[in-house]
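The methods section describes the discrete structure representation at length, but only in general terms. An entry of this sort, consisting of the sequence and the corresponding backbone structure tokens, reads as follows.
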Amino acid sequence: MTYQIDKIQMKNIAILVPQGAASVGCIEGSYIGFSRANEVLAGMGRSPLFTITLVGLTMEPQRYDRFVSIQPDITTQDDYRADLIIIPAVNGEWNEVISINREFFPWIVGQYKNGAEVASLCVGAFLLAATGLVEGKKCATHWMFQNDFRKMFPDVDLVSEKVITDERGIYSSGGANSFWNLIIYLIDKYAGREVAIACAKIYEIEVDRDTQSPFIIFVGQKDHEDEPIKEAQSFIESNFQKKITVEELAARCAMGRRTFERRFKKATSNTVVEYLQRVKIEAAKKSLEHNRKPVSEVMYDVGYSDTKAFRTTFKKITGLSPIDYRNKFA
């Protein structure tokens, strides 16, 4: 279906209405964001650019959060050609969520092959990944579910610290309200920077935010069956203030270093050094949030003696300096 106003090619935005539990905020926010962009364009004396359509598997209204009901405009069986498909965040047990929404996947893939772009919001990335469209590509999702995602989709390059990914017409956003950053990004791409900035100001969205690292709470991946590695993780978490070497950990597990490192990475999705760093920095974050100790004292408390190394690692993991982190979250 093609729309034209004043000889300007409209962009058909298709927002999925998933089966099961879904984030009403992602569905409503996407609809409002592109609608507001049309209003901003009108205020500039320009023609609207976006038509927004809610697409379901059936025409039955979907009830979310017990009291919100959303009525699809069309179904995947209708004759419709999308320019952009929005996959909102979904909730529940992931295999079940994917199963009950599986009928969307051929439609999404077919639309993509016909030129549509596809964007997932937050944990909508699980549905996007299940289509196969992001195998070998970068993808973001909510940091809380990164371990689940990596286990289910090992062929996807998950960049859990990113707010937005953009690769060959496939987009994804980080967790929770960062979906707004992707909506603004897409408005910028389709309608221009001036319109995007206006929308960002209306909704008070911090544009060009590229990392969700400051918000990540590190919880070591222990949903695995490798008991010696679990013991090594527990040892690290109980002794992070001390100097711990890979050789020491391997010896405690009665393994050679290379075998230990391989099994550790497979089980936790982190190298041993990454895990050590993340546990130390998580402890430093909590200290900065809850007390006024000097940064140098916090550094010593978590087992660092080199100021430059501590600050470099802290910023690499959180995206902020220790002082900036304290100012933001204390």
About this structure: The two ends are 52 Å apart (CA to CA). The chain has 14 helices and 15 strands.
